[in-house]
């Protein structure tokens, strides 16, 4: 089987964090290549201030995801991220950080995504901070990407824009309305996989991918 699995996501999306175990399971499938495509859903016009109502909504949603998936959303995240009124709900910086990794160490982008998610949802870190993201990438040994994040230049931002546009085009073509989205492409056929079962059974996508 030679299949490319395109994963459309947003780094701040709780449901995408909940899908991480399913994504990790897919790494075990021989002949399957995973391509990450951030959608920019919560960046630009999709970014917003963190107010009391939105924080309460996010925490309620996060608790549901935790029950379904076993993924951890800590009290530290609740207090230091959702409770911080100076911090925007903005995935722009993290999306740029992942693009920097895709340009310099593409095989490690999923590893970087997991580290970014953990920094937010478990460690309660402000991952909208460029210096923090640069330090996080450096701690993973992704030094080139870390340097790029210290001062994002026009080339990096353009590469990021292109990736977001690719994801948006693919979502439009498939009629996808939200994330996460998993798209299997065999070269002859391209189809969107069903995600309803992945939260309780991370290996549910493997059968779909093999069938594709």
What descriptors fit this protein?
oxidoreductase activity; two-stranded antiparallel ribbon; single chain; globular; Glutaredoxin; Thioredoxin-like_sf; 52% helix; 212 residues; 4-stranded mixed β-sheet; DSBA-like_thioredoxin_dom; alpha+beta; 6 strands
How would you characterize this protein structure?
This protein has 212 residues and is α+β, with helices and mostly antiparallel strands. It has a single domain, classed as 3-Layer(aba) Sandwich (Glutaredoxin). Helices cover 52% and strands 12% of the residues. It has 10 helices and 6 strands, in the order E-H-H-E-E-H-H-E-H-H-H-H-H-E-E-H. A 4-stranded mixed β-sheet has the order 2-1-5-6. Strands 3-4 form a two-stranded antiparallel ribbon. Strand 5 and strand 6 form a beta hairpin. The N and C termini lie close together (9 Å).
List strands and helices in order, with pairings.
Blueprint: E1 3-9, H1 14-18, H2 20-26, E2 32-38, E3 48-49, H3 52-69, H4 75-82, E4 88-89, H5 92-104, H6 109-121, H7 130-139, H8 143-150, H9 154-174, E5 181-185, E6 190-192, H10 204-211
Parallel strand pairs: 1-2
Antiparallel strand pairs: 1-5, 3-4, 5-6
Helix pairs in contact: 5-6, 5-7, 5-8, 5-9, 7-8
Return the CATH architecture. Answer: 3-Layer(aba) Sandwich
* Tally of individual domains: 1
CATH-assigned fold name: Glutaredoxin
Number of helices: 10
The profile of the biggest β sheet is: 4 strands, mixed
Q: Radius of gyration over alpha carbons?
A: 17 Å
Q: Can you write the helix and strand succession as a string?
A: EHHEEHHEHHHHHEEH
Strand percentage lies at: 5-15%
Total beta strand runs: 6
Principal-axes shape call: globular
Helix content: 40-55%
Overall pLDDT score: 94
Strand line-up in the sheet with most strands:
2-1-5-6
CATH superfamily heading: Glutaredoxin
Low-confidence stretches: none
Give the CATH level 1 class.
Alpha Beta
Structural class: alpha+beta
